[in-house]
């Protein structure tokens, strides 16, 4: 049998897709890029965000046409499927043969064997959310990989549907993550990006996040990059422990979401603007070469002009190396979705544009300060004759302050 898998959404979903491919291979099912040659068509989707839902539907409809045009093809929809849509998924998408929720990839081998003619297997919802992780088939270039160290989230941010969809946080055992690292290094991986919904809360049998990073560093991997550090738990002390290991890039991603105390409180983010200022000033003073990426949500219900001005002045002073600016989107069944004080769409768009302009000038200023510095570059690819790249450059890559496909590139001559 052959499977064609389309993966959408964030790197955490990408890891689930990579694990799914590995489990399918174990069940004797190879993968193909050509949906027409596939027996099984899979959409691995991030559809919990209302805004991503339409994109998922479009992809499922596209593959349903391929299914209809072929003989005996099957279609699976898996990933972050929102609970509130579960009841009507079957009615809405009757041509989908199986729905596999996030973390349920361990059910795939039984499904495939059954479709291959084996006796029908009872497919129970499987608890093993990390099935297939250690032997993943990489969908990223062979020198870089994401490593998911935990699943779910036990916090209660009012805008976020993740805890309802992915459940409470469960951390993977250190030994399993280290085995995965060793496999990845055997495949040529030089850089790993550690992921979780709330990475600072990692705790497996008493091993906390810094212990895990120590065990990962011991494998000899060249670059360790860390994402999703909750600013409520990130501290100078934690940073000191992490940076004891030379392999840990002086790059941290810590999504602040906002910097007005009033908005932070309504978001149920357990920190204040003053704490954020102290945290980032302390980090900058002690690690001047640290590059911090952050994320903010603009237009959260009740956000006033004053709140927005506070956010802007915080960003001006803090000078993040890069910033993701998201407009607030009300997610069904979250506390924020029913809060009053909806901010008008045109105002949200203006604020997003304003922050993007501000960040562009901050990033430009920081990059200018790199002039004359020497950096080690991880080469991602050869540029060839692609006219979209500046003339005279042969390769593109990244220095430690740039995450793969997130923070831009460095071009190399010769
Ligand atoms: S925003 Fe992050 S920390 Fe907050 S509930 Fe969602 S996943 Fe958890």
Give the topology, please.
Elements: E1 2-7, H1 11-26, E2 30-31, E3 40-46, H2 50-69, E4 74-80, H3 86-92, E5 98-101, H4 108-115, E6 144-148, E7 150-151, H5 162-166, E8 170-171, H6 174-186, E9 191-195, E10 203-204, E11 207-208, H7 209-217, E12 223-226, H8 236-242, E13 248-253, H9 261-267, H10 273-286, E14 291-298, H11 305-318, E15 322-327, H12 345-368, E16 378-382, E17 395-398, E18 410-412
Parallel strand pairs: 1-2, 1-3, 3-4, 4-5, 6-9, 9-12, 12-13, 13-14, 14-15
Antiparallel strand pairs: 7-8, 10-11, 16-17, 17-18
Bound molecules: iron/sulfur cluster.
Number of domains: 3
What's the arrangement of strands in the largest beta sheet? 6-9-12-13-14-15
The helix/strand series, from N terminus to C terminus, equals EHEEHEHEHEEHEHEEEHEHEHHEHEHEEE
The main pleated sheet reads as: 6 strands, parallel
Shape: globular
In terms of DSSP E residues, the strand content is 15-25%
The overall pLDDT, averaged over residues, is 91
The fold-level CATH name of the largest domain is: pyruvate-formate lyase- activating enzyme
Give the count of helical stretches. Answer: 12
Distance between the termini: 44 Å
Summarize the structure.
By secondary structure, this protein is an alpha/beta fold.
Spell out the key features of this protein.
globular; 18 strands; 414 residues; 5-stranded parallel beta sheet; 19% strand; binds iron/sulfur cluster; pyruvate-formate lyase- activating enzyme; single chain; 6-stranded parallel beta sheet; 12 helices; Rossmann fold; alpha/beta
